[in-house]
Structures are given as C-alpha cells and as structure tokens.
Amino acid sequence: MSIETQMINSILRLTGNGPISHELIKKDATMTSESCRKLLDRLQNQGLVNVQKGFVEADGSQRVNLAMEAVRLGADIEDVSSHLQWQEFESIAAVAFERNGYAVLKNLRFSSAGRRWEIDVVGSRRPFVICVDCKHWHHGLRPATLARIAREQTERTSALVNALPVLAGRIKCASWSKAKVVPCILSLLSGAFKFHEGIPIVPVLQLQDFISQLPAHANTLLHYSKTISNLDNWF
C-alpha cells in the first residue's frame, strides 16, 4: 500500500465524527511531518479535504470521493468501505446519478398498498426512474440471501410504481407521459452474480458503466412501464 493510500485510509478512519489533527493523521499513517503536510496539501488542492489551523476535515461527499480515490490508487475496497458510514455509501449512488443528469432523491419514504416503504436512492431522467437499494455488505452472499434482497427491492419498486403519479412531483417526473421504472441493487463488492431475476447487482466501481449503458440495455432488465399523464404516447 502506498503512503498516499495509507493516509487516505487514516483520514477515512478518523474523520467520521469530525475534524482531526495533522498530528493524529501522521501518527496513524506512520508518516513524517513533511510527507503528511505535502500529501494533505495535495488532497486539499483536489478538493478532497479541508485543512485549517492544524486540523483536517472531510464532509460526507469528500469522504466518498476519498474512498473512491483510495480504490483508484490500489487500496482494498473492503478495507476502504469499512470506514464509510451507511449514509456515505448511499451518497456514492446519489453523486454518480447527479453527474449523469439525473434528479436524485435519497431515502424516499411513501405509502402504498396499505403500508410504508423506503427506497435508498431514486434517480430520475426521462424516461428512466431508477430505484437503488444500497447494500453495505463486505463478503459474498449466499444465493438465498441474494434472492431475498432482490425480492424485497422488487416489492419496493412495484410499490413505487403503484404510487405514481402521486409521487411524480417529488421524484421530478410529473411532466413525463410515461416512465420506465428499474430496480437496482448497488453493492460495494463484485460478487458471483451480476443479475438476479432481471435485477442488476451493480458493484460500486461499475456504477458509471451501468448508468451509461442503461438506455441500451433497459429492456433486458426487469422494469415497469407506468403512465403518468396522457400528454403524448411515445413509449
């Protein structure tokens, strides 16, 4: 592991509850004072940390980007991801969809079929509404566990479809005539399964590829077509 990835791991491990001192980072990453200062300056210039008066701070978005940078530099994704909090993992999906022109809503709570539901991340860009379940697991899953996770996400997505067009304003698709709603499971790790009954299991490092390729492959995935308004009939 390079000295830079050691530092990033230390920052991720130590900044979860707020700012930390240069000295603590230096000690945790077993670095010299000069190396610590230079690397912190570099990370600050990249917008990955905020450095002020001997302390280092990283907000949720910065911590997600730090984690991705560490993985890019060769750090073990399981080790890096163990330092992320649950909400920060969800932010990975939100940032990726936003960068691709999607309107994003995290932790969507709604009622449908007589019960309450919650979807971790919903990304909307005409004609797609992507319902993402973020799974922060660190080891491979047994087929039975994966089947349960996929079934539960199918149920959540189906409930959202039934709640349209009531939810259309909240997820920024009220002006659409129809939507194609796609369930998706986002994982930290690559596993033995890429799909389960038509639901994509997307490792976080392949999320950008999934978003880019979605228009070409959406019809091969489990999806729901839902009429929102009768303005036109182009689907």
Tell me the major beta sheet. Answer: 7 strands, mixed
Run of helices and strands:
HEHHEEHHHEEEHEEEHE
State the assembly state of the protein chains: single chain
Please state the second-level CATH architecture of the largest domain.
3-Layer(aba) Sandwich
Give the helix proportion (percent range). Answer: 40-55%
- Regarding CATH, which class of the largest domain? Alpha Beta
How many domains? The number is 2
Rounded to the nearest angstrom, the radius of gyration is 20 Å
Number of discrete helical segments: 8
Distance between the termini: 50 Å
Structural classification? alpha+beta
Total DSSP E strands: 10
Query: Could you tell me the mean pLDDT?
Result: 86
CATH topology of the largest domain: Trna Endonuclease, Chain: A, domain 1
Instruction: Report strand %.
Output: 15-25%
How does the overall form come out from the CA principal axes? elongated
Which ranges are low-confidence, i.e. pLDDT below 50, for 5 or more consecutive residues? 231-235
What does the model show?
- The protein is an alpha+beta fold.
- It has two domains: 81 residues, Winged helix-like DNA-binding domain superfamily/Winged helix DNA-binding domain (Arc Repressor Mutant, subunit A), CATH 1.10.10; 141 residues, Trna Endonuclease, Chain: A, domain 1.
- 41% of the residues lie in helices and 25% in strands.
- It has eight helices and ten strands.
- The strands form two sheets. Strands 4, 5, 6, 7, 8, 9 and 10 form a seven-stranded mixed sheet that branches. Strands 1-3-2 form a three-stranded antiparallel sheet.
- The C terminus is likely disordered.
